[in-house]
Amino acid sequence: MSIAEIHRQITAEEIAHTFEEEATPKVDLGIYAFEDWVALAIFWVMALAVFLQFFTRYVLNDSYAWTEEIATYCLIGVVFIGASMCVRLSRHIQVDLVYRYLPRPVGRALSTMIDLIRIAFFGYATKLVWVYIQVIGDEQMTTINFPKNLVYYAVLLGFVLMFLRSLQAAVQHWRQGYSVLERPGAYDGSEM
Fold first, then answer.
1. DSSP 128-147
2. Would you call 97 helix, strand, or coil by DSSP?
3. Name one GO biological process term (predicted).
4. Whose CB has fewer CB within 10 Å in the chain, the N or C terminal residue?
5. Banded model confidence at residue 1, pLDDT cuts 50, 70, 90
6. Tens digits of per-residue pLDDT, 95-144?
7. 108 vs 17, 97, 103, 112, 174, CA distance in Å?
C-alpha cells in the first residue's frame, strides 16, 4: 500500500503573501539598563581596537602596540560590567536540579541563603577592588600614558552594579516567593 501525496496548486499571489511580514515588531529599548549600554559602548571600542590592530599588522605590516593593550583593558570592562547584566537577569551558571527534590520550604530557605551569600560576596569584592585602587595609585599603562586605575574603576563599577543588582534580585525573589533556582521556567518562559 502506497501513500500518495496530495498537492494543491497555489497561485503566485499566495506565494507572494507568504513573504509579507505580518506586522513590524515594535522595538522596546526599555528592557535594557544602564550597564547594558555601557558594556555595549566598551565592546565597540574594543572591536575598533582589534580591527585597527588587525589592519595595521596584516595590511600595513606595522602594527600599533597600543591597540592590543586597549583591547585587553576593554575586554576587562566588558566582562565585569556585563556580569552585572547577568546578575540582573539571573543568567549566571547555577545548579537548580537539587531544588526539584527538596521540599518547598527547604528550597526557599536555601535560595534565600544563596541570595544573602551573593550579596555579601559582591559587597566584599567591591571593597577589595576599592582598596586595590587605593594601593596602585596612578600607575600608568604600558604603551599609552593613561592611568591604569581607569581599568580598575570599570571593575569597581561592575562590582558595585553586581552588588546593587543582587540586592534588587533578592528583594524580587522575596516578594514573589521564589527565585530562578526554585522555578527556572518562570524566568526562561518555559513555564506557563
1. HHHHHHHHHTTPBPSSSSSB
2. helix
3. C4-dicarboxylate transport
4. N
5. low
6. 878 888 889 899 899 999 999 999 999 999 999 999 999 988 788 888 88
7. 51, 14, 9, 6, 9
CB atoms under 10 Å from CB of 127, counted, come to 13
pLDDT digits (tens, 9 = 90+) for 45-57: 999 999 999 999 9
CA nearest to 67, candidates 150, 158, 142: 142
In the structure grid, which three cell numbers stand for residue 1, read together? 500500500
What does the alpha-carbon distance between residue 15 and residue 17 come to, in Å, rounded to a whole number? Answer: 5
Q: What angle do CA 96, 99, 105 make, to 5 degrees?
A: 140
Question: Cell 576599592 belongs to which residue?
Answer: 130
The torsion angles phi and psi of 140, rounded to 5 degrees, stand at: -90, 155
SS3 label, residue 27: coil
